[in-house]
Amino acid sequence: MPRPGDGDDDDGDSGSDGVAGALPADVEAALTQLLSEAAVAARRRDVDDVTAIVDTVETVTRNKVPAGRVRERLLHGCRRVDRLASDEPLVAAAYLEAMERLVDTS
To answer: pTM of the prediction?
Structure first.
């Protein structure tokens, strides 16, 4: 939520970078939960669960996250996790945790 005096025009739109105020609360909550579950699945080396959850994260991101830096980084992370999940599950888990932090700070 924008703070008074931070230069935001209070319309919830952060401009082209997609940072402050970019995610509605329900989208943030859904992505946070999904990313957390995917990271746990990756640490368990459950590739099928990771793949299914990341597909959902990608869909939510494409449909609900405004264009900008956050959206681009989430989609990039989804592509990387798809490639890493089977051979490097711990690296995939680290990507998912970084994506969760990104959502939490958006």
So the answer is: 0.79
